[in-house]
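Input (structure):
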């Protein structure tokens, strides 16, 4: 989970900067404000975060105590969805935008456990994500890590670090997992996703999850407000709004549901709190 602000990598896998009128800030790690990717890492029990992230995350936990259960549910949804598109959909290429800090098993590990030759391009904005991801895949082939901006979809699609891995003449799985709720309405997330969908050939898949206020009476407004002081705001959306992101893609069963309900492999534990994250997988049929 990370915000869609890009950074100028200054190398073959970084952004050239300023594409589509979007400024690319310097390649520095900003520890003056909490960052969604590092907060997500803290929620998962990781150590790749700073005091500013930890303080903000604790405020979020106080306002939404189910968050740690929620991010784990989102993570396992991604695991199941990736296994589905690789094992049942025959996917051998994955474009993961907003990948966040590495947490094992990572997408390439999940996919290659089924199909060893699967190619993966990771795209994220945060320099610390890039550093850790590059270290993780240092000995990996058919994998790249790209610093780029989700709000500039053509810049992502045309990036040499993406193009050297992904062949857009063959089916691709596009992952937008817990990322679009960091894109404001003013930044037109529907147009962003439409541009990405349009670039995918028939037989491709979209795996998407998104925060919602639908399942809690208070909409978790106090928790959402924590991100006002972060590098990106949080923008929960309704089920109907999230459904729009899939466009004319065909949702696979069970459709767009809360992430624990997407093809669960184990029964829900008694007393599990409601999780305000929708998830779905859809296929491009034509």
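Output (sequence):
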């Amino acid at each position: 989970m990370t915000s869609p602000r890009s950074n100028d990598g200054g190398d073959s896998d970084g952004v050239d900067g300023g594409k589509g009128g979007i400024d690319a800030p310097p390649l520095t790690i900003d520890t003056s404000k909490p960052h969604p990717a590092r907060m997500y890492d803290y929620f998962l029990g990781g150590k790749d975060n700073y005091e500013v992230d930890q303080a903000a995350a604790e405020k979020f936990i106080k306002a939404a105590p189910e968050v740690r259960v929620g991010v784990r549910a989102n993570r396992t949804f991604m695991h199941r969805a990736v296994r589905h598109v690789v094992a049942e959909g025959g996917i051998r290429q994955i474009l993961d935008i907003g990948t966040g800090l590495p947490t094992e098993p990572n997408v390439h590990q999940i996919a290659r456990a089924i199909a060893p030759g699967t190619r993966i391009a990771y795209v994220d904005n945060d320099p610390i994500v890039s550093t850790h991801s590059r270290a993780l895949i240092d000995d990996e082939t058919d994998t790249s890590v790209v610093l780029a901006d989700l709000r500039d979809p053509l810049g992502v699609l045309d990036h040499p670090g993406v193009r050297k891995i992904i062949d857009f003449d063959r089916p691709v799985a596009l992952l937008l997992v817990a990322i679009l709720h960091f894109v404001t309405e003013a930044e037109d997330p529907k147009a962003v996703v439409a541009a990405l969908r349009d670039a995918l050939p028939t037989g491709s898949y979209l795996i998407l999850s998104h925060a919602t206020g639908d399942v809690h009476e208070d909409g978790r407004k106090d928790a959402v407000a924590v991100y006002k002081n972060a590098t990106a705001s949080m923008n929960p959306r309704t089920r109907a709004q999230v459904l729009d992101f899939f466009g004319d893609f065909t949702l696979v069963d069970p459709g767009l549901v809360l992430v624990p309900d997407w093809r669960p492999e184990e029964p829900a534990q008694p007393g599990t709190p409601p999780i305000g994250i929708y998830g779905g997988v859809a296929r491009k049929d034509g």
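Notes: The first strand starts at residue 93 and ends at 97. The mean pLDDT is 87.
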